[in-house]
Design a protein that fits this description.
The complex is a heterodimer of chains A (297) and B (345).
Chain A (H helix, E strand, L loop, with lengths): L2 E11 L4 E11 L3 E5 L6 H8 L7 E6 L2 E2 L7 E4 L11 H11 L5 H11 L12 H14 L4 E5 L7 H18 L2 E6 L2 H7 L2 E6 L2 E7 H7 E7 L11 E7 L3 E7 L10 E4 L2 H13 L16
Helix pairs in contact in A: 3-4, 4-5
Chain B lengths: L1 H38 L8 H15 L3 H35 L1 H5 L6 H38 L16 H6 L3 H20 L2 H23 L7 E6 L7 E4 L5 E4 L10 E8 L11 H4 L6 H7 L3 E7 L4 H29 L3
Antiparallel strand pairs in B: 1-5, 2-3, 4-5
Helix pairs in contact in B: 1-3, 1-5, 3-5, 3-7, 3-8, 5-7, 5-11, 7-8, 7-11
Classes of the chains: A alpha/beta (297), B mainly alpha (345).
Chain lengths: 297, 345
Amino acid sequence: MTAVIETKGLGKRYRQLQALADCTLSVPAGHVVGLVGPNGAGKSTLLNLAAGLLAPTTGTIEVLGGPAPAQLAKLGFLAQDAPVYATLSVADHLKLGARLNPGWDQALARARIDQLDLDPGQKAGTLSGGQRAQLALTLALAKRPRLLILDEPVASLDPLARREFLQDLMEAVAEQDLSVVLSSHLIADLERVCDYLIVLVGSRVRVAGPVEELLATHHLLTGPRRDPATLPDGQQVISASHTDVQSTLLVRTSSPVLDPAWTVSEVGLEDMVLAYMRQAAGPGRRRTPGNHLEVQK
Amino acid sequence: MIWLTWRQFRPQAVISLAALAAFAILLGATGPHLASMYATSGIAGCHGTGGCSYVVSSFLGLLSGFYTLVFMLGIAGVILAPAVIGVFWGAPLIAREFETGTFRLAWTQSITRARWLASKLALPGLAAMAVTEGLSLMYGWWAAPIGQAARFANNSNFPLGMSPYSLLAFDAHGVVPLGYAAFGFALGVTAGVLIRRTLPAMALTLAIFAAVQVAMPLAIRPSLFPPAHMTQSLAANFSGQQSAGPGGTFGLTLDYIDSEPGAWIFSSGAVNAAGQPVSLMPAACVNAHTGDPNQCLASHGIRIAVSYLPTSRYWPIQLTETGIYLALALVLAGFSYWRLGRRLP
């Protein structure tokens, strides 16, 4: 498995703010990778570093096997809020793409603009948020990139535009054979499009893996109250909550849970991600402090 | 990349070309008549202050009203152009890209940031210099007859009678407007790179540019070249002024040198036969009510000493000052390049 983004001890510090610290991760090729985490986790900083827009303060980042700023031609980047030139028309933006990118696919760009029913003469500043995001996506796709990076692509879109955007993205990915990394703090969006998930909290990767595998190895156990420390070795407790008589545990394990005391149920992606975020946030964010134990491995 | 720069710059370019064209039409329509008035004024063949001052005054008198208005309009246009360019072309150039986030779009195309900046600096930067210098050349052509006459005039003929070195006239003629435009533009770009917001960058650009444009003629330009010195006798046709102070002191001032029309006079004052400055009136002259008081001073060996820049220094100063501004512009452009390349947002 080759990596499209590989970071080692990556850190980025603004004057007072440490936006990303000691981040080591590997994003595999050939997937639609969802990068999820709470606000301030460093998602945006990480993706901007990957696009060469930022230079790391510490550590290294490699994109498509080379230093980030040298990979511009092979990289499609859709920045947060999909910036476009307000006074330039849709057609001007395509011309911009054609002039600035050697691998530009004009046929693809035109086809997408037609399909989206955008007026080529319309100024980009008068487009709706959804149309603007689609135009920016068109620019990124027509570069024919090997890696497409999208920073919170749907955060500012209404639900309908969000659905259409993600659907278009999926179609493009199916046609173009490219790796995709997109960040979001909305797990529902990622669930529909991603087949690989990285949960980033406080600059650290809390869990990473193919979505199917993650879902298959995480289970919600409900049963009589019990100390999580007494679980078998293969079971890693992600979160635990207890009432006087009952314990509810989210565990990660590669082998089946055999203990008949537990009622085993499947866990949704959202609940799983939230559990990892809560785990990372520490006891301060727990709803009922002191009422449960936490095990980290 | 040059296409994108041009496409973004097009509205400003169209507006400036329209303004330039309107100005050219105004000057072209009135210039020939002005030149013919000069040709018939007799200034070209006049000799000495006495012979010239009359024809110069009558020529400049003919120009009151409309021609004076165009004259002032032209000076204002050439002097303000670099400031306007710095504020409206330079400051938003990069600042607006930061403000709207479009730098993320531009910097993630397949070209390097260095090429992006080079193209953004080159096209509007060269246009800034061309527009300003074009404006100055057109205006210089139009105002040439007035400039010829003004060499024989003194400050009482303001505004038309401004000497080539006077504050407004120097800034509007020659090659200095080129340097001012390059500097104004680069200053605006640098302010935008540092502040990253358009309006504050515009304000900072205007403030710094105005300060530099005031400091240059007052503090730097006079010391670019050492002044020349000369003494002149208080002959019968002495054109300076004598003033009397308390306690028998007096002073002599000269604001026009007959042999050096248009020279920039830094200072003038009375000196004795040995060349030492004097401020006390010789006793014999204190109550000399008869005759020309200057003659009494002259008979005591008192002359007037002047330190000045001759008109032969005009072009060396123009070129030196232009060089200084171009160098400043290059330093600012280099700083912007370094700042965008090394210290990323």
